[in-house]
């Protein structure tokens, strides 16, 4: 059942992104930033937490989940280190995901030798 809930939640997030691309003049980059920002806001307000408990990876893997992780890390950093933790906590909380994205992006660039667009 966890797989189905993750598929539904992640799929709905993707459907929202696709609708925004099809029906508005927003660029994918603006939608990306909006999703991450929305994840931070909903995480800070405590609204995203129930969605994470219900949809698990379906809610944490997409872009709003990254924003949620940033907010959660910032709150944890503030609890541990005070005000400076607000700046370092988000980066610490998402460091593994960022490192994995950089590593696998580099690995794919080596394997598939990308070319510049003309």
UniProtKB/TrEMBL annotation:
Q: Which Pfam families match?
A: SpoVAC_SpoVAEB
According to the record, the segments passing through the membrane are: 6-22, 29-48, 83-112
Q: Which UniProt keywords apply?
A: Membrane, Transmembrane, Transmembrane helix
Against InterPro entries, the record matches this protein to: Spore_V_AE, SpoVA
PANTHER family, alphabetized? STAGE V SPORULATION PROTEIN AC-RELATED, STAGE V SPORULATION PROTEIN AEB
**Protein name, entry field:** Stage V sporulation protein AE
Task: Record the organism.
Answer: Caloramator quimbayensis
